[in-house]
Sequence to fold (352 residues):
Amino acid sequence: MNPDRPDRPVRRGRFPLSLRRNPVAWERQRPTWREARPAVIARALKRAQARPSGNWYVVGATRDVRDDRPLGRTVAGREVVVWRDAARRLVAGPGVCPHLGAPLRDSPVRCGTLVCHWHGLALRGGPFAGWEPLPVHDDGVLVWVRLDDVGGEPPLDEPVVPVRPALSDALSAVYVGVGTCEPEDVVANRLDPWHGAWFHPYSFVDLTVVDAPGTSPAGAGGQEAGRGAADGDGFAVDVSFKLAGRLVVPVRAVFTAPEPRTVVMHITEGEGQGSVVETHATPLGPDALGRPRTAVVEAVVAASDRPGFAAARTMAPLLRPLVRAAAGRLWRDDLAYAERRWHLRSTGRFPG
Fold:
């Protein structure tokens, strides 16, 4: 990529990898702090927060809902359990047994029935003994639960699920991490693409934000862009994913926020075109010190028309842990970013 020509398309070569011709040392790369204007990020965050979520919250990965036990999560201070009934349909509801308050997340599932391990109260998915089911949705990668009394918005029949590659032709993996912050801090992190090559030099190099809402992209002669990217409200980035040494994968990625707790990175040009990385922020509730906790649920849905990708998909059980490990390395840093942001906001010291 040529930082002096940010409008130049990212072309895919014959081979998936490229060799960096003139590597730039970390400390000599172009500073991005002037472009990463706090007001631009704040306005993008505000627009995201104004979009409807329909009160849907991501609780985890589809693969984590097993036949023999429920998936238990705490969402905004409410215990929730999800399991599959005898017909393998998803069931969701409160995670507190209505009898004496047992944690249903620790109870087994037998033939589609959740059986409380304290006294044997059996839940088959319908209302029973004061227990009421919750709306639940499985999009094939993630499981969502609708909590109308928590979200307080007009409910939607289904969550706002981003456009993805066909799952039958894709490789998917889900990473879950937890930080001391609020969902807006996670979303703000993702709406700051300028930090990528500075904060994550082990993964990203040669990063240029070529388009952002209300900003002038580098190399545009200072003219106001204003057009954004994708739907007019996205951040377009030319960046190379670093593999080893000088081997990189150059792509163009567009970041958008389709709802208040989600940011999606679409690969629009280059290797893996059509692939997405979805970052979902789910509030968990306060910790023992009263500080907010948020779960980052990141779904990677990768696709490629390369002949070797079909073979790679057959190795999905081996590749998923590697994808989760790569996401975990990034989020160890990015959660520190989000936690720092929350700390400064909560103490009234956040810049601006």
